[in-house]
Amino acid sequence: MASDFLPYGRQSLGDDEIAAVAEVLRGDWLTTGPSVTRFEADLAEHLGGTPAVAVTSGTAALHVAYAAAGVGAGDEVVTSPLTFVATAATAALHGAKVVFADVEQDTGNLDPEAARAAAGPNTRVVAAVDYAGHPADLDALRTVAESADALLLEDAAHSIGGALNGRPVGSIADVTTFSFFATKNLTTAEGGAVASPSPDLLANAAAFRNHGLVREKAAQRYPDEGDWHQEVHAFGLNYRLPDVLCALGIAQLRKLAAFKSRRAEIHQRYDKAFAGLDQVRTPVTRAGADPMWHLYPLRARDGRRKALFEHLRSKGIGVQVNYIPAYWHPVFEDLGYRRGLCPNAERYYEEELSLPLFPGLTDSDVDRVIDAVREFLGA
């Protein structure tokens, strides 16, 4: 990769993270140790006190959350198609039918009225996605979920540190999932978390991420077997996030406010540069929303997205497209899903281009992106 190549996202690490990881490597616990507990506690403080369990990825978080909610064969999960495929795939892996509902034209988030029309008697979960870091309309979606006797899940892979009507992301839905992948708003390299105010949902999540093991004698079927004894009452998987990565997360959480501020500054510079240009649409911020901007989704009108993508890549600017509608993937096509299902999501995808956005971008980097876009547009 050329030294002047600008990726669309990048981790922001320093000496604090290196020292934190080194301390764990010199200690006794590489995994299942005190750094996991501390990371979960520190994370809860950022979620308005909502407890959380750490897992190995954002995909694992979704798989764990659906398991905690009891999703299985015969159930339906209503969700947005404008998301990384994992939001839907992990529900399908539990045997559920995924019902895609269309998105709002401006935010790209799940449209409450479309979700209401898609919900039915078999709906177990309504899964919203905070696209690009802008919180979904969770209050309206909660009403939809409650009317279907379903749980509300917030896929907050993009939005940790954000808020809606003064409430932090992670404190609003029945269960919230996070991703700490390298390009996300904070990173543990790979990693994620599941948060819930419900003790039962949280206990289910904690059990599923650790093989379903039951070690407490009071809960065991055969408690007199011996002090070594452990049992599995329901199947789970190993989704434990190790101490060495939790230490990285602890250091990153201390910087979350600074990350948010810098991302907002970059976002505002893009907004100002492209304001009033008819050839593109810029992101919106709804009243009451305090986004943690993970992406800057510029939308190119008149079918020019691909040409703009290629122009910027030729300039060493690593733009990306987020995302192909989930049901366009052949795995869903083979299940009978067809294009045209969610017109707003498809139109959004056909226009969307994610510009570089991460705290380490300098103002001159941002100006370079702006100049290249405006050059293409002839502005």
TrEMBL record:
A matching Pfam family: DegT_DnrJ_EryC1
InterPro entries (UniProt xref): DegT/StrS_aminotransferase, PyrdxlP-dep_Trfase, PyrdxlP-dep_Trfase_major, PyrdxlP-dep_Trfase_small
Classification via SUPFAM superfamilies: PLP-dependent transferases
CDD domains, A to Z: AHBA_syn
Cofactor: pyridoxal 5'-phosphate
GO terms of biological process kind: polysaccharide biosynthetic process
Keywords on record: Pyridoxal phosphate
GO molecular function, one term: transaminase activity
Position of the signal peptide: none
Keyword Secreted: no
Similarity section: Belongs to the DegT/DnrJ/EryC1 family.
Name of the featured protein: dTDP-4-amino-4,6-dideoxygalactose transaminase
UniProt organism field: Prauserella marina
